[in-house]
From TrEMBL, chain A:
InterPro entries attached to this UniProt entry: MetI-like, MetI-like_sf
GO cellular component, one term: plasma membrane
Name listed for the protein in its UniProt record: ABC transporter permease
Keywords of this entry: Cell membrane, Membrane, Transmembrane, Transmembrane helix, Transport
Transmembrane domains' residue ranges: 12-32, 74-98, 110-130, 142-162, 183-208, 257-276
GO biological process: transmembrane transport
Origin: domain of life: Bacteria
Topology with respect to the bilayer: Multi-pass membrane protein
Subcellular location, record wording: Cell membrane
ABC transmembrane type-1 domain ranges (all copies): 75-276
Similarity comment text for this entry: Belongs to the binding-protein-dependent transport system permease family.
C-alpha cells in the first residue's frame, strides 16, 4: 500500500494510534495493578489508589498463601490436572484427528457429522452429571479430565493441519513399509510440531482454568483446583455469597493476599503466553477453514 | 443401455436378486475398505467412544425430563410423568424472569459487544507500523487466556468498597462511592464490560484475517478516485469482510442461550438474582443443589432445543440471503 502523506491522513493516524494505545493500556493495566499490589504492603495499598511499582517491596502476601496448606494443595491439584489432562487430551485428539484426516476412510462424512453435532446440541448439565456419576468419576480428579477428553474445535484444527501435509510424505513412508501408526508417530507428528504445540497449550490453558467441572463434580474441598479456591478467597470473602454453606471460617483475607492469589492462578498462563502467542493466530485460523 | 435393448421385463425375483447382489458388492467393498483401514478405525475408535459416552448418552439421558427420575431407581425404574415438568416451568414466575434476563444479556452481547471486535480490527488494520500493531495485539489478546474466575476476581479487587482503586478514584474526585458488587443495577454493565475486556481483542483475529485477504489494488483505485481513509474503510474493507461478519453473527445467534454459565454464576448472588439468573445457573441450582433432577433436565432440554432451532434458523436465513452459512 502506498503511504498516504496528506494532512487528513496524518491526523487520522495520530488519533487511531492514540486510541489503540489507550485501549491496549486499559486492557493490561488492571492486571499490572494486581501484580504490583500483590508485592505491596497493606498500608501502601490503602494509601495509594493505583499501584504499578510498590515502594516497599514485600513478599509477605506470597509467604502467607504458601504457608497455608490449602493453597499449596490446590496448586498441586491444578498442576496435576493440567499435565495429565493435556497429555491425555492430546493423545486422543491426535489419534482421532489423524484418522479423520485420511481421505480414503469410508463413512468419513457421517463420522464428521457425528462429531460436529455435539457442538450444536448437548445433553445439558444434569444428564451429563448423571453419566459422570454412573461412570464412577464423582469426587475424583478424573472428573475434571475424562468428561472433556476431546475439544472438538481443537481436534478439527489438528485434522485440518494433518490434511494439509504433503501427500507424498505418507506415500513414501507406506512404500517403505510403515504401518498407519508408524506413519502417524514417525512422520506426521514430527512434521506437525508447531500445530501440536499450539493445541497442547490450548488444552493446557483450559485445564489450568478449569472451574465449572470442579464445582459440578467435586464436593471434597481437598480436591479443589486453584480456580475454585480463588473464588472462595476473592469473590466470596467480599461479603456476598450465593450459598452461605460455602463460607469458610477463616477471616477475610487482606487485599494483598487476594491479589497474590489472583497472580498465582494466572502465572502459568503468563509463562506460556509468549510461546503461545507465536502460533495461536495461525492455529485459530486453521480451525475456521471449512472442510 | 444394454438392458433396454433386450426389452425383457425383469421378474420381481430377478429385481430382488439384482438388488441383493448390488448391496452385497457394496458390502464387500466396505468390508475390504474396513480391512484395509483397520488401523485407522482403531485410531478413531477411542475418540468416538468418548463422544458417545459423554456427549450422546447425555442427549438420550434427557428423557428423564419426562420422568420423575430417582437416582436409585435409574431411568428404567423411574416413573413417567409426561410433560408435567414443562408445565411447571412455563407456569412458574421464575421462567419469565429467566427468559427476560437471558434475552437482555443476549441483546447486550449483540448490540454492544459484537461490533467492538469489528471496529477494533478496522483500527488495527490502519496501523502502518507492523511492530506497533503486534505489540498492541499481544496486549489485547492476553485476557482471553485468563479464566472467568480471574476476570471476575480482578473486577472484585478493583471495584470493592474496601480499598478498590475505582472507589478510591471516585473519592479522590469528590464523588460518591458506589457499591458495584452489591448493587444489582451494576450487574449488567459489569457483565458486558467483563466480556469486552476478556474477548474483544481475541475476537479481532478472524476479522483481521479476512481483511488481510482484500486485494490492495482496490485501495489504490479508491485512492485515485479521491476516497479518504474512512471512505476506503466503508466502501472496501467492510464489504470485504461482510460474509465473515454474517457467519459470526449466525454463530452468536445460535448461542443466544449460551451466556456463559461460569461467568454468570460467579457474579450471581442473592441481591442480583432477579437480573442475573439465567437458564444454566437455574438448572444447576434446581438440579444439583436441590436435587430436582427431572425438573432441571426439562429446563435444560427447553434451552437446548430452542438453541438448536435458532442455529438452524439463523443458518437458513444466511443461506437464503446468498451467504455461505456454517453448514
Amino acid at each position: 500500500m502506498i503511504v498516504d502523506k496528506s494532512l487528513s491522513s496524518r491526523i487520522f493516524n495520530l488519533i487511531n494510534t492514540t486510541l489503540l494505545t489507550l485501549i491496549a493500556l486499559i486492557t493490561v493495566l488492571p492486571f499490572i495493578h494486581v501484580i504490583g499490589s500483590s508485592f505491596a504492603t497493606g498500608a501502601e495499598i490503602a494509601e495509594k489508589s493505583f499501584l504499578i511499582f510498590p515502594t516497599k517491596f514485600t513478599l509477605s502476601a506470597y509467604k502467607y498463601i504458601f504457608s497455608t496448606g490449602t493453597v499449596m494443595k490446590a496448586i498441586f491439584v491444578s498442576i496435576f490436572v493440567t499435565v495429565v489432562g493435556t497429555l491425555w487430551s492430546m493423545f486422543l485428539s491426535t489419534l482421532t484427528a489423524y484418522g479423520l484426516s485420511r481421505k480414503d476412510l469410508v463413512g468419513r462424512r457421517y463420522i464428521m457429522f457425528f462429531i460436529i453435532f455435539t457442538m450444536l446440541f448437548n445433553g445439558g448439565i444434569i444428564p451429563t452429571f448423571v453419566v459422570v456419576q454412573k461412570t464412577g468419576l464423582l469426587d475424583s480428579l478424573a472428573a475434571l479430565i475424562i468428561p472433556v477428553s476431546i475439544n472438538v474445535f481443537n481436534m478439527i484444527i489438528l485434522k485440518t493441519f494433518f490434511q494439509n501435509l504433503p501427500a507424498g510424505l505418507e506415500e513414501s513412508a507406506k512404500i517403505d513399509g510403515a504401518g498407519d501408526f508408524g506413519i502417524l508417530f514417525r512422520i506426521v507428528i514430527p512434521c506437525s510440531l508447531p500445530a501440536i504445540a499450539t493445541i497442547s497449550l490450548f488444552y493446557g490453558v483450559t485445564y489450568w482454568n478449569t472451574y465449572m467441572h470442579a464445582i459440578l463434580y467435586l464436593s471434597d474441598a481437598a480436591k479443589w483446583p486453584v480456580q475454585v479456591l480463588l473464588r472462595q478467597i476473592v469473590v466470596l470473602a467480599t461479603g456476598i455469597a450465593y450459598d452461605s454453606a460455602e463460607y469458610s471460617d477463616v477471616p477475610p483475607p487482606s487485599q494483598s493476599v487476594k491479589m497474590a492469589v489472583i497472580v498465582v492462578a494466572t502465572i502459568p498462563i503468563l509463562l506460556v503466553y509468549p510461546f503461545l502467542q507465536k502460533h495461536f493466530a495461525k492455529g485459530a485460523l486453521l480451525g475456521s477453514i471449512k472442510e | 443401455m444394454e438392458m433396454n435393448s433386450i426389452q425383457v421385463p425383469l421378474t420381481k425375483a430377478e429385481i430382488k436378486e439384482r438388488k441383493r447382489s448390488e448391496s452385497q458388492k457394496k458390502r464387500s467393498e466396505l468390508r475390504k475398505n474396513i480391512a484395509k483401514n483397520k488401523m485407522i478405525y482403531l485410531m478413531i475408535a477411542p475418540g468416538l467412544l468418548y463422544l458417545f459416552i459423554y456427549k450422546y448418552i447425555p442427549m438420550f439421558g434427557m428423557i428423564i425430563a419426562f420422568q420423575d427420575y430417582k437416582p436409585y431407581l435409574g431411568i428404567a425404574g423411574s416413573e413417567w410423568v409426561g410433560l408435567e415438568h414443562f408445565k411447571r416451568l412455563f407456569t412458574s414466575s421464575d421462567f419469565w424472569m429467566i427468559l427476560k434476563n437471558t434475552l437482555v444479556l443476549f441483546a447486550l452481547q449483540i448490540l454492544i459487544y459484537f461490533p467492538i471486535p469489528i471496529i477494533l480490527s478496522l483500527m488495527l488494520n490502519e496501523l502502518r507500523k507492523e511492530y506497533y500493531k503486534k505489540t498492541i495485539q499481544t496486549m489485547i489478546y492476553l485476557p482471553h487466556f485468563m479464566s472467568w474466575v480471574v476476570v471476575v476476581s480482578i473486577s472484585y479487587v478493583l471495584l470493592t468498597l474496601d480499598g478498590g482503586i475505582i472507589n478510591g478514584l471516585l473519592k479522590n474526585f469528590g464523588l460518591k462511592e458506589i457499591n458495584f458488587l452489591l448493587d444489582s443495577s451494576w450487574f449488567r454493565p459489569m457483565y458486558i464490560l467483563q466480556i469486552i475486556w476478556r474477548e474483544a481483542g481475541w475476537g479481532t483475529i478472524i476479522f483481521l484475517a479476512a481483511i488481510a485477504s482484500v486485494d490492495p489494488q482496490l485501495y489504490e483505485a479508491a485512492k485515485m478516485d479521491g476516497a479518504n481513509r474512512f471512505r476506503q474503510m466503508w466502501h472496501i474493507t467492510l464489504p470485504a469482510i461482510k460474509s465473515v461478519i454474517i457467519i459470526l453473527l449466525i454463530l452468536k445467534i445460535g448461542d443466544v442461550l449460551e451466556l456463559g454459565f461460569e461467568h454468570v454464576y460467579l457474579l450471581l448472588n442473592s441481591t442480583n438474582r432477579h437480573v442475573a439468573e439465567i437458564f444454566d445457573t437455574y438448572v444447576y441450582v434446581a438440579g444439583l443443589r436441590q436435587g430436582q433432577f427431572s425438573y432441571a433436565t426439562a429446563v435444560g432440554l427447553f434451552k437446548g432445543v430452542v438453541g438448536l432451532i435458532l442455529v438452524v434458523f439463523a443458518n437458513w436465513l444466511a443461506k437464503k440471503n446468498g451467504e455461505e452459512g456454517i453448514y
